[in-house]
Amino acid sequence: MKVTIIGGGGRVGSNAAFCMQCAGIVSEIQILDHNTDLADGEALDLLHGAASLADQRIYSGDYDRAKDSDIFIITAGLRRKPDETRLDLMNRNVGLFSQIISDIKSAGMKREAIVFVVSNPVDILTHLAASFLDLPSSQVIGLGTMLDTARFRSLIANDLDLAPTQVRALILGEHGDSMLPVWSSATVGGLPLTEVPGCDSNYQRQIFERTKKSGAEVISRKGGAGWAVGATIAETVHAIALDRKQLLPVSSLQNGCYGLKDVCLSVPTVVGRGGAEKHIQLKLWPKEEQALKASAKALQAMLSKVGS
Ligand SMILES: NC(=O)c1ccc[n+]([C@@H]2O[C@H](COP(=O)([O-])OP(=O)(O)OC[C@H]3O[C@@H](n4cnc5c(N)ncnc54)[C@H](O)[C@@H]3O)[C@@H](O)[C@H]2O)c1
């Protein structure tokens, strides 16, 4: 499986490339970046580690060389400033993003290729990609709340001294201010997480708020998120490459699940070789379902402002 990372010279793209290199599941990783020196340097640095990590082809390239990719990951974009919301970034990133989509299209792409959007605001840009690419909407996915969900699970496990991989707790909706925690189905080792001592309603409120502000916390301390987002990008790519049918909170165009339409956001989604293969409407608490609908409304309001 060949993966091209557009913006791969940057922090998020290069960290994702390293996570995919460590896992050794995809066979080819192409780094494509506006800054060609940076792309060459990152590809070379990764290639130097190949002997210790995995037998893969790793190189820098252009759109022509990218056209036979199975997955295009888009991490190109301008970074969020510490006091900037993801939506403030919107109009700064939309122009740049539209050009990238048009470059992918004009270079040509395989009919079964998947376009995987990471750049922010991710739900809005996923919607733009789904609208402009001649691909079934299941083949256009966004990272959505994958990173928020990973942060949520890892922070809870750290606080309550539990195993992060056994803590299962989803965040759905927008990758942004209107995201929502799903406590109704949260488990640890298959049992209700909310019954673990220390996981009371005060803690639940506090840990969700901390998770929501985690992106800004990392930006203010080290300039931008990298490793965790790289890990969640790799997790999604591996679900596609291995046709895992994992239920993941990726973003994709909604077509009726929870009554949502014409908006990209995260609902429980089966991810496999076809991309976002199926949305599954699992039972939520009424207040969770209301919050999901409110998140969709907030995103639709933002979409109506694109370009204005
Ligand atoms: N969805 C998420 O959960 C999530 C998490 C973290 C960051 N992000 C987003 O990822 C994006 C990248 O963040 P970063 O920290 O890697 O930024 P960065 O500045 O380190 O990297 C961006 C890269 O994009 C390249 N680039 C710019 N315009 C380009 C173009 N037209 N074509 C090809 N490459 C181009 C730049 O040269 C740079 O190397 C941002 O939009 C950020 O908000 C998303």
Automatic annotation (TrEMBL):
CDD domains: LDH_like. Substrate binds at residues 80, 86, 120, 151. NAD(+) binds at residues 7-13, 33, 93, 118-120. One of its GO terms (biological process) is lactate metabolic process. Gene3D superfamilies: Lactate dehydrogenase/glycoside hydrolase, family 4, C-terminal (3.90.110.10), NAD(P)-binding Rossmann-like Domain (3.40.50.720). This is Lactate/malate dehydrogenase family protein. GO terms for molecular function: L-lactate dehydrogenase (NAD+) activity. Residues 1-142 form the Lactate/malate dehydrogenase N-terminal domain. Coiled coil: none annotated. Pfam families: Ldh_1_C (PF02866), Ldh_1_N (PF00056). Keywords: NAD, Oxidoreductase. SUPFAM superfamilies: LDH C-terminal domain-like, NAD(P)-binding Rossmann-fold domains.
